[in-house]
Please model this.
Amino acid sequence: MSMIEFHDVQKYYEHFHALIDINLEIDKGETVVLIGPSGSGKSTLVRTINGLERIQAGKLIVNNHDLSSPNTNFDILRRDVGMVFQHFYLYANKTVLENIMLAPRIVLKMPEEQNRTEALKLLDMVGLKEKANNMPSQISGGQQQRVAIARSLAMKPRLLLFDEPTSALDPEMIDDVLQVIKRVTSVSDMTSLIVTHEMGFAKEVANRVIFMDAGQIVEDDQKESFFQQPKTERARKFLSKIITH
Ligand SMILES: Nc1ncnc2c1ncn2[C@@H]1O[C@H](COP(=O)(O)OP(=O)(O)OP(=O)(O)O)[C@@H](O)[C@H]1O
Model:
């Protein structure tokens, strides 16, 4: 069963053709990593999936919602589609625990006790239970990003999108966040699409790798084949330039 289907999708920013003939199908439960040079369209592609960017042509189906239709209800779509951004956007005037409990309380009308229990469980999962009553400004950037991940999970998304979740972090914070993402994507039956520049992480966590260049999907392959034998010269060049670890 598909979670995401792109059929001949085109996206323009004014006259700039940012996504060109995108055809892509991602099944429920897959963990897909999206890589490619800066400006190749990775963020744009991910942002079309929850309607932060609209497409101009083609068909885009996400969790059975047709995003190419003018009648799409994005509020309903976004209940099932979480997103973790480069910057964490926590509510600065609310505690870590309150940040996690807010959306389930308001959107899902979850009873308070259940909400608190589940939020604490999620904080435990991201290794931050002892920070529940701290304010976001009292924890590190890496810890804030782990709270943002817990906050997304609190809505029990079917699909979780990550847009360069570690690129705003100090190097020593990156590993903890990547380990949390790895844990989250391996224990649940959620579908995940992750834009990252961390190749070591992509090798560890992905089932499948999509490589974009200049607005197009150039390769779409199982992780092993992509990293061992990229099919195109563009992907070979990209892989030879980046530092792997
Ligand atoms: N709002 C916008 N208006 C006009 N052009 C845009 C807009 N957003 C992105 N672009 C352009 O679209 C192209 C793709 O951008 P996008 O951010 O999707 O690339 P990316 O692969 O995510 O890059 P990076 O790895 O640097 O984040 C770039 O050339 C960018 O300048």
User: Anything to note?
Assistant: The chain is about 40% helix and 25% strand. The radius of gyration is 18 Å. The pocket of adenosine-5'-triphosphate is lined by residues 13, 16, 18, 36, 38-44 (CB under 6 Å).
